[in-house]
């Protein structure tokens, strides 16, 4: 099976290709430009360098979130368009599961976290495996609440994701020696990890591929707050 995976859910724009069960291309770029300017040139380059064409792709994949609202929309919309044009199925991959797939083995719980702003994280928990075993559903919550859940496991915890940069000191202070952190090259979501998971997931028609949002966008939350204040 040949899979093209796109990830624009976070700071990095990523594209990966799987051919006959093997990852043949894994590209990641972090730059000042928006993902909408980068993703299709990266897709073209990945296909060219892998000596493949869109017609060779059997399944198109997107990281559907949680993550940046705008970024997730870019990736999902791009994959929907490619799948529609090619007449091929697609698959959505959870960002936190893809992060957990960066870890081949660990004797404890894997804790992918993304910075959700406002002192909150998007978090979940897994056990390591080719397909990580989910222990906790994705949630948007204050860091303290997330660490309560981690601490309740009584196990060592391995943290990764862009939330580590914002909260590493707080995590280490709370969990002490029970907190571990991956090395820098494994910290961020890799399109190749998402691509590997896509091979194990049920495919769908492009019309059913939707973003995964754990909370309303900031603009909607602020509007709701203003409306609520106006009724006080």
What does this structure look like?
The chain has two domains: 3-95 and 189-217, 2-Layer Sandwich (Nucleotidyltransferase, domain 5); 103-186, Nucleotidyltransferase, domain 5. 36% of the residues lie in helices and 28% in strands. It has seven helices and ten strands. The strands form two sheets. The protein has a five-stranded mixed β-sheet with strand order 3-2-1-4-5, sandwiched between helices. Helix 5 (163-175) links the parallel strand 9 (157-160) and strand 10 (179-181). The chain is globular, with a radius of gyration of 18 Å. The relative contact order is 0.19.
SSE blueprint and pairings:
Elements: E1 3-7, E2 13-19, E3 22-29, H1 35-49, E4 59-65, H2 69-86, E5 90-94, H3 95-100, E6 109-117, E7 120-127, E8 133-142, H4 143-152, E9 157-160, H5 163-175, E10 179-181, H6 191-198, H7 218-230
Parallel strand pairs: 1-4, 4-5, 6-9, 9-10
Antiparallel strand pairs: 1-2, 2-3, 6-7, 7-8
Helix pairs in contact: 1-2
Largest sheet: 5 strands, mixed
CATH topology of the largest domain: Nucleotidyltransferase, domain 5
- Count of beta strands: 10
Sequence of strands across the biggest β-sheet: 3-2-1-4-5
* Proportion of strand residues: 25-35%
CATH architecture of the largest domain: 2-Layer Sandwich
- How many domains make up the coordinates? 2
The CATH homologous superfamily of the largest domain is named ATPase, nucleotide binding domain
The N- to C-terminal Cα distance equals 58 Å
Please, what is the average pLDDT?
93
Shape: globular
Order of helices and strands: EEEHEHEHEEEHEHEHH
Helix content: 25-40%
Low-confidence stretches: none
Number of helices: 7
**Rounded radius of gyration (Å):** 18 Å
């Amino acid at each position: 099976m040949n899979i093209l995976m796109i990830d624009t859910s976070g700071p990095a724009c990523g594209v990966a290709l799987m051919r006959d069960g093997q990852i043949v291309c894994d590209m990641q770029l972090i730059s000042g430009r928006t993902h909408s300017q980068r993703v299709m040139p990266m897709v073209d380059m990945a296909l060219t360098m892998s000596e493949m064409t869109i017609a060779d792709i059997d399944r198109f994949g997107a990281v559907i979130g949680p993550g940046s609202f705008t970024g997730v929309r870019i990736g999902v919309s791009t994959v929907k368009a490619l799948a529609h044009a090619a007449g091929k199925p697609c698959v959505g991959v959870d960002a936190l599961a893809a992060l957990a797939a960066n870890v081949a083995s660990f004797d404890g719980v894997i804790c992918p976290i993304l910075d959700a702003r406002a002192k909150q994280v998007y978090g979940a928990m897994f056990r390591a495996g080719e397909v990580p075993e989910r222990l906790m559903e994705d949630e948007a919550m204050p860091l303290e609440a997330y660490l309560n859940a981690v601490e309740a496991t009584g196990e060592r915890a391995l943290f990764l994701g862009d939330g580590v940069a914002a909260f590493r000191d707080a995590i280490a202070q709370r969990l002490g020696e029970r907190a571990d952190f991956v090395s820098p090259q494994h910290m961020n979501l890799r399109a190749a990890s998402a691509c590997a998971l896509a091979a194990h997931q049920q495919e769908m028609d492009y019309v059913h591929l939707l973003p995964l949002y754990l909370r309303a966008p900031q603009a909607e939350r602020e509007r709701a707050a203003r409306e609520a204040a106006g009724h006080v």
